[in-house]
Each structure stands twice: as C-alpha cells, then as structure tokens.
Amino acid sequence: MSVATTLRFDETDKVEATDLLKSMGVTFNGYLGMAVKQLINQRRIPFEIVPAAYEPTEETRLAMLRAEAKAAGLIPDDDLSFADPDDFIASLEE
Questions:
Q1: What pLDDT is recorded for position 26?
Q2: Does residue 53 form part of some domain?
Q3: Where are the beta strands (DSSP E) in the chain?
Q4: S-S: 46 plus which of 4, 13, 36, 38, CB 3.0-4.6 Å?
Q5: Helix axes 11-23, 28-42, angle to 10 degrees
C-alpha cells in the first residue's frame, strides 16, 4: 500500500536533481522510494554525507599564502606584518 507524502525542496535543487535523475532513467519519486528502501534494508543512511566545500575568507586565504611563503623561505619568519596601515606608518617612525 502506498501513502502520499508531501515534501518541500528548494526549487533549484529539485530541478537539478530531477534533471540528473532523468539522465539516469530514474524519476525523482522513484529515487526517493529507492533511498527509503535502502535506508530500511541497510539500517543506515545509504550514502556518504559530506559537508559543503570550505571557502576561506579573503583574510584567511592571505594568511595561508603568507604562511606558505614563509615555509618556502620566500619571506623571512621575522617579517613584520600589519593589519592596519597606521600601525605600519608608526613602525617606520620608530
């Protein structure tokens, strides 16, 4: 016996998933049915759950580049760095 269930998805995600599944010969509803059956059969989520790719902030990206440059010997370890231009100017006046 089948039971009707209402699910809500982000529209863009549903369109993309439906297109991918269609290219594989599977309907969206068919895929959901298979996923539920595999959950029951395997007693676990039947696929790997991975987090979204980490995108570092600009500040973090620059800090990583600076650390790599220091590790490669391109800039000295004792090289001064400044978060504020006023701090840089103050260091020149010392």
A1: 96
A2: no
A3: none
A4: 38
A5: 90
**Cβ(91)–Cβ(80) below 8 Å:** yes
Query: Average pLDDT, whole number, for the chain?
Result: 89
**Integer Cα distance of 34 and 25 in angstroms:** 13
Statement to judge: residues 32 and 63 lie in one domain: no
Residue 65 and residue 25 in one domain: no
pLDDT tens per residue, range 36-62? 999 999 999 988 988 888 888 998 888
- For the chain, the residue count is 94
Give the contacts of 9 (CB within 8 A, at least 6 positions apart). 17
**Which amino acid appears at position 41 of this protein?**
N
HSE-CB of 3 using CA atoms within 13 angstroms: 2
Collapsed DSSP state (helix, strand, coil) of residue 53: coil
